[in-house]
Specification:
This protein has 399 residues and is an alpha/beta fold. It is 44% helix and 19% strand. The chain has a six-stranded mixed sheet, with helices on both faces. A four-stranded parallel sheet has the order 5-4-3-6, with helices on both faces. A four-stranded antiparallel sheet has the order 12-13-11-14. Helix 5 packs parallel to helix 6 and helix 9 packs parallel to helix 11.
Amino acid sequence: MIGLAEVQQAAQRLAGQVLQTPCLESRTLSQITGAQVFLKFENLQYTASFKERGACNKLALLKPEERARGVVAMSAGNHAQGVAYHAQRWGVRAVIVMPRFTPGIKVERTRALGAEVVLHGETLEQAREHADALAHQQGLTFVHPYDDDAVIAGQGTVALEMLQAQPDLQALVVAAGGGGLIGGMAVAAKALKPDIEVIGVQTRRFAAMVNALTGSHWPQGTNTIAEGIAVGQPGQRTLALARRYVDDWLVVDEEDLEQAIVLLLDIEKTLVEGAGAAGLAALLKYPQRLAGRRVGLVLCGGNLDPLLLASIIERGMVRAGRLVRLVVSTRDLPGQLARIAGVVAEAGANIDQVHHQRAFTLLAAQNVEIELVLQTRGPQHVQEVLAALRAAGFEVTQR
């Protein structure tokens, strides 16, 4: 089991190799959550993830003959890019096995960094088995994404930097998949500040570590927008560290992650992926848990597929009442749509989509349902639009 010394030695190796990212207070998020929130912007690393730290530390410790043969890793994306980037910098061959569900943007970025990408398996465990086979066949050194002392020590440097920048932090809220980040951070944080509370966060669909440590029985799902922490089985080293140093665990749902992603984009103007939003998602879901305390969150990754981001933003607008669907029932007469559009415009809303429904309705044959998707300023504005349409004589419902 590694300790503070290994993390501090990793920090010395990483000096000048990875970015020492800022750790800054977010006043707006503090007001929303009720805690004093400090954000560690690991999404600003070159590969947009903290994973660079562990990969770089592991590669730095390779023997000359191991560097000559090359390395192999399995990853859903961020670890892959970290290994590929630093292997390319040092002229080391890198083979990366990625599950087939890996977002295309992560696959292409890994290839662009010079790695040989192999898509294999439907889970990380299946990808791991194939990576093991390649390691034996080709004499490659396996670089595990989390269950490796050198990798864990590298990830732990995040906590060193956070406590250096904000020594008064009272709690760290950290996303966990395999446990490399939270294991390394907890070791370092508890050694430097024994009274600090370390809280892990997992998504309900992939709560393997929570189940192992708390006795819960969350069923494993098949997918999550937090694919960076979609791990079916935690590492043995990381599980031991978490059992010893992590104080509590929180579980979040997909909608919590989506809300946190949108808030960070809207308020902090920073893009995070699902795993990177897990800490804020937990604060939003359990506001009383850390109310009034100084809390550090790690924005651990920012590699989010643009199409998924567009969907998340749109769904976020629906939840916020800024995108609303109304159904207007009216006589099927020339000019009715123009009248409705005029009322909507006068009320200050914008029509995003419109659809006439004549056949699939229970209305009389001479009537029509007009479905409108509107852009509004929020729930109060929606009520004003509804009132305006009803005042104009239209029958309208919100769906």
